[in-house]
Amino acid sequence: MRKKIFSILLCLVLMTGIITGCSSSEEKTDGGKTSKEDKVSQDSSDEKAPSEKEHEPITITIGPWPAEDETENLARAEEQLKEMKEKYPWITTKPDRFPYDVKSFLPRAEAGQLPTLYDAHMTEPPKIIAGGYAADITDVMKEWGYDKSVNKQVLDVATKDGRYYGLPYSVYTMGLNYNINMMKEAGLVDEDGKPQIAKTWDDVVEFAKKIKDATGQAGFTIPSLNNMGGWQFLNIAWGFGADFEEQGEDGNWTAIFNSPEAVEAMQWVKDLKWEHDVIPANPLLEGEDVDQFFASDQLGMKLRDFGNFASLVRDFGMQKDNIAISRMPGGKAGDYAQLGGSLHMFAPDATKEEIDAGFKWLEITGFSDKTDKESLDIFRKQQETDAADGLIIGPYGVPEIWPNSERSNEEMKIRKELANVDLSLYEDYLNAGDEITIYPEPAVNAQELYKLLDNVVQAVWTDKNADPKTLLDKATEDFQRDYLDPFNESGGASEGQE
Length: 498
Known about the structure:
Elements: H1 2-26, H2 36-46, E1 58-62, H3 71-87, E2 91-95, H4 102-110, E3 117-121, H5 125-130, H6 138-144, H7 146-149, H8 152-155, E4 159-160, E5 163-164, E6 167-173, E7 175-179, H9 180-185, H10 201-215, E8 218-220, H11 228-239, E9 245-247, E10 253-255, H12 260-274, H13 287-295, E11 299-304, H14 309-314, E12 323-327, E13 330-331, E14 334-346, H15 352-364, H16 373-388, H17 406-418, H18 427-430, E15 437-440, H19 446-462, H20 468-489, H21 492-495
Parallel strand pairs: 1-2, 8-11, 14-15
Antiparallel strand pairs: 3-14, 4-5, 6-14, 7-11, 7-12, 9-10, 13-14
Helix pairs in contact: 11-12, 11-19, 12-19, 16-17, 19-20
């Protein structure tokens, strides 16, 4: 009886195998391809691939979010939030109006209140990294390929010991800005109405005198408040052969901005007031004050990057066609321009998944080295949004984020197509190339350095008897004692900057 039952079961198993084999064979087309019915089943399954079943829910916060008065950018950002949710439904993206501020950043960072993704000035990575306030994003950078495609010159700003802590997205070099209306009044334009180029700091003085004589207004100035004076002074002093801090073989940093070259540069700044009389009557100005004078035909020349033009047009009502820019003037030591800009960084507790989600958000907003239609359409739409907001379209930041790449070429094409200004007014600035040396901002405590130099600029412009050498000696001593020595003692120096 047992044998009979076993035989019956064996037959059933064999028959099942045969049926299964036949069924499998019948559901395949020639070449073993999946049948229509099976493909429908697969497609239905694939539609559920980017769902919460396959991805753990992620929430990230992003800053800074556009202000309420930035209507076009705000509307575009809200559209991008929707696009992000549609493309990556498992990611929740929350806006955070977090503007980087030198004074408020550290308290917020120490309290663990940083957004997942935040922006910072290019002066800040050494301090942020040393404080442990930024996540190591190396692995995600490499997965996205940005370690290869982003300009190494700017990527190094946020690199330490071969690891990446930030992603530069807005890069600039300083240049000399011209108010075309005032240059015309002073006879400083060519037959085509383009401003003459001040190639040296001596040229700047001569141009400033002619503007003052012709218009009665200031010919040139730099700000002297809120760290702006020190920041811009660097760009002048380098041309005289000065430098500000240096790292010894032992890794320690030393302040060196009381050199004869730095003193000569500060004397040049002092002479703008007391010998040449080409700066505003009240020399104690914030950056916005200088912009206001420039936009309202009360200042002929100033120093800033091309990115500043957005504010001149949007915030101060300057006409787009009234602005020109050239490379930085040179001095006896050569032609120098400061590298600056902004970069994206991540909160120190951000997970790899959250960092990757942040990179996805950046791609949605237009940061990408891709050249597919979708990616370029995002870039084009951002340019069109800026144009609708009244901004200048056509010129671009120098150096480029994507050097020597197809992406860079495609962006250039779009910019030229949408250009709303005469690009010849930017030609000297954009084509400086290897003819000018680009310097990064100081590696250690740059903002604190700028503040001390602010004090020196203010002193030489408010006191005719102020001695640049004495003032710089004191500032150098204070900077070494209060900032560089503590940095050296903390071990920040020995770790080194890549």
